[in-house]
Amino acid sequence: xxxxxxxxxxxxxxxxxxxxxxxxxxxxxxxxxxxxxxxxxxxxxxxxxxxxxxxxxxxxxxxxxxxxxxxxxxxxxxxxxxxxxxxxxxxxxxxxxxxxxxxxxxxxxxxxxxxxxxxxxxxxxxxxxxxxxxxxxxxxxxxxxxxxxxxxxxxxxxxxxxxxxxxxxxxxxxxxxxxxxxxxxxxxxxxxxxxxxxxxxxxxxxxxxxxxxxxxxxxxxxxxxxxxxxxxxxxxxxxxxxxxxxxxxxxxxxxxxxxxxxxxxxxxxxxxxxxxxxxxxxxx
Length: 284
What we know:
This protein is about 45% helix and about 15% strand. The protein is α/β, with parallel strands linked by helices. It has an 8-stranded mixed beta sheet, sandwiched between helices.
């Protein structure tokens, strides 16, 4: 097992114990990074960290609890007082259900609130390293519409449309983060890694028939769309190491204009305010 050196770069990958997060953590380690792997399964996490090497570690964290996200940020800061990369990879689509312990709809809690709180909690180590934040989003149609009440208000609900609305919000939040924190030397980008039919995406959807886990892989194979986890993970490594455009939207690893709403200054400001207010209320 390789041991870290003073020149080893350190990355944090959330949702790094399975699927694409696991593949990304291992790909970064293969490229020479020390990876702090965040997840909820200690057994899986320990196994990924062992295979990663380079002094990589598993750090337990429950991203559905903002109190635990704040605790996690403190632990990560102690483990990596100079942090080169934060990959907000954890995300998911959910059926309608009970809110989180903070009273948040689960899709918003995992896809927007947790990345916001974790990033804000790691600003000091990121600034020290002149680090980078990769927010993992999805492919979004240029004219896709969403209002904030659908993201985290009275109209917020789960399902695929709820997931895409929250990823649109995260894309807008990426632009806001770049505007607010770029002066500290931190770079923020959003990445749609591609469609990966072999991951556990959608496994949290309830019901006897779940199209994500039943027919999705079949049609992906039949029509030859999607990419492997290894190809998608290579896009994480590329964005981690190459020159990038701050606040850029990297669709399957290539820079492209974001959807219109995510480029709207008013929407960007509103998403920042929403995320800040919702997470502040949860801590009050």
